[in-house]
Design brief:
Blueprint: H1 3-51, H2 53-70, H3 84-113, H4 119-160, H5 175-180, H6 218-221, E1 223-225, E2 237-240, E3 245-250, E4 253-259, H7 272-289, H8 292-302, H9 307-312, H10 314-327, H11 333-369
Parallel strand pairs: 1-2
Antiparallel strand pairs: 2-3, 3-4
Length: 370
C-alpha cells in the first residue's frame, strides 16, 4: 500500500475519533441538562404537595375513619411522639411530589434516549408512556376505593371481634379472691348499703336543705344530635351521631370528652405514622402490579418472548398472581383475593396487548423480506 494512502487512512481514523469524542461530549452535556431539568420537576411538585399536605393526609385517612365509625370506634388516629405530625406531613408531601413529577422525569429520560432509537422503537415508546400513566392512575384508584376499604374492614372487624374482658370482682372463696385478700381491702371500696345516698344541689327556688322530687331523665341531660348546635351554651353537652361521641362546649370551643365505643378485648389505637407507611407501601405495590400489561406489551414489541409461549404456562402465571396478591397485601385472605383476581385480569389483558404488539412488529419484517 502506498505511503500516501496509509497517511490518508490514518487521517480518516483520527477524524472519526474526533467526531466520536465530540458526539460523546454532546451526549454528556445533554445528559447533564436533562438531569437538571428532571430534578427541578420533583422540587416544584414537592412544594405543591407540602402546600396541600394536610388535606392529602386527611384524604388518606378518610377510609380508615369511615371503617372505624361503622364499627362504633372513634374515627381518629393517634401519635406516639411529639414530632409524628410534622414527619407524617413531610413524608406525604414529598411522596406526592415524586408521584406528580414522575411523568416529567420520564419525559426527560425519553428525550435523552430518543436520538439513539430507531423509528419503530420511537413509536413503541410513545405508546408505552401514556399506557403506563393510565395503568398507574387505575392502580391508585383501585387501591383507594376497593382494596384499602376491604382490607381495613376485615382487619378492624377481626380485631374488635374478641370478647370483652370479664372485669367483675372475683367470686367469693375463689382462688383469685384468696390471693387478693393478702393485699387487704381495695383503695376504692364499693359503697355499702348503709351509706347515705348521694345528694345533689336543690333547685334555686327550693328551700335550703330540700331535695328534688325526682331525678332528671337522661334525655334531658344529653340530647342526641346529628349536627352540632350552631350556638352552644357554656357547659352544654350532647351525643353526636353517627360518630357516637359525647361532646361538651367548654371555654368557647367544643371538645370530644368521651368516645362512646363498644366493649372489646382489643381496642384499636392506630398510630398515624404506621398507617401512612402502610398505605404508601400498599399503594406502591399495587401501582407496580398494574404495570404488568405494560411490561408484557414491551416484551411483545421487542419480540423477546412469543405470546404463545406465555399462553402455554398460563396456569403457572395465574399461580404467580395469587402469590403476588399474598406478598403485596397484609396477611388476610380478603385483601389477597381482592388483589390476586385483578392481577389475573391484568395478565389476560397484557396477553391480548402482547399479541397485538407482537403482530405489529412481525408484519413490517415479513413485508421487508418479500
Amino acid at each position: 500500500m502506498p505511503l500516501d494512502q496509509i497517511d490518508h487512512e490514518s487521517k480518516r481514523k483520527e477524524t472519526r475519533l474526533d467526531e466520536m469524542r465530540m458526539s460523546f461530549g454532546d451526549h454528556i452535556e445533554d445528559l447533564r441538562r436533562r438531569l437538571v431539568l428532571a430534578l427541578l420537576g420533583p422540587l416544584v411538585t414537592s412544594i405543591l404537595g407540602l402546600i396541600y399536605g394536610r388535606q392529602i393526609v386527611g384524604w388518606l385517612v378518610r377510609p380508615l375513619a369511615q371503617v372505624l365509625q361503622y364499627f362504633g370506634l372513634p374515627p381518629q388516629t393517634y401519635n406516639l411522639a411529639v414530632t409524628t405530625g410534622f414527619s407524617v406531613y413531610m413524608k406525604v408531601g414529598l411522596i406526592v411530589g415524586l408521584i406528580l413529577a414522575s411523568p416529567w422525569v420520564c419525559y426527560q429520560l425519553w428525550k435523552f434516549i430518543e436520538s439513539g432509537l430507531y423509528e419503530r422503537e420511537r413509536h413503541a415508546a410513545v405508546l408505552v408512556a401514556p399506557f403506563s400513566a393510565v395503568m398507574s392512575v387505575l392502580g391508585v384508584l383501585f387501591m383507594y376505593y376497593i382494596l384499602l376499604p376491604m382490607t381495613l374492614a376485615f382487619l378492624i372487624y377481626f380485631t374488635t371481634g374478641f370478647p370483652a374482658p370479664d372485669a367483675q370482682g372475683p367470686a367469693e372463696g375463689g382462688i383469685i379472691a384468696r390471693v387478693l385478700s393478702i393485699y387487704g381491702s381495695p383503695h376504692t371500696p364499693a359503697a355499702s348499703p348503709t351509706d347515705p345516698p348521694a345528694t345533689q344541689d336543690p333547685p334555686p327556688d327550693s328551700p335550703p336543705g330540700s331535695l328534688p322530687d325526682s331525678l332528671p331523665d337522661a334525655t334531658t341531660l344529653f340530647q342526641t344530635l346529628t349536627t352540632d348546635p350552631p350556638n352552644p351554651l357554656e357547659g352544654q353537652a350532647w351525643i353526636k351521631q353517627p360518630e357516637g361521641q359525647l361532646r361538651v362546649h367548654i371555654s368557647g370551643r367544643t371538645i370530644t370528652y368521651i368516645p362512646l365505643v363498644g366493649q372489646s378485648l382489643l381496642a384499636p389505637m392506630i398510630e398515624i405514622g404506621q398507617y401512612i407507611s402502610f398505605v404508601t407501601m400498599l399503594m406502591l405495590g399495587v401501582v407496580i402490579s398494574f404495570q404488568l400489561p405494560v411490561v408484557m406489551m414491551i416484551l411483545g414489541w421487542s419480540r423477546l418472548i412469543a405470546p404463545e409461549t406465555i399462553s402455554k404456562y398460563r396456569r403457572y402465571c395465574i399461580f404467580v398472581c395469587f402469590v403476588l396478591g399474598a406478598l403485596l397485601t397484609p396477611a388476610d385472605p380478603i385483601s389477597m383475593f381482592a388483589l390476586a383476581l385483578p392481577l389475573w385480569a391484568l395478565f389476560e389483558l397484557g396477553l391480548i396487548v402482547m399479541r397485538f404488539s407482537y403482530r405489529k412488529t412481525t408484519e413490517p419484517a415479513e413485508s421487508a423480506e418479500s
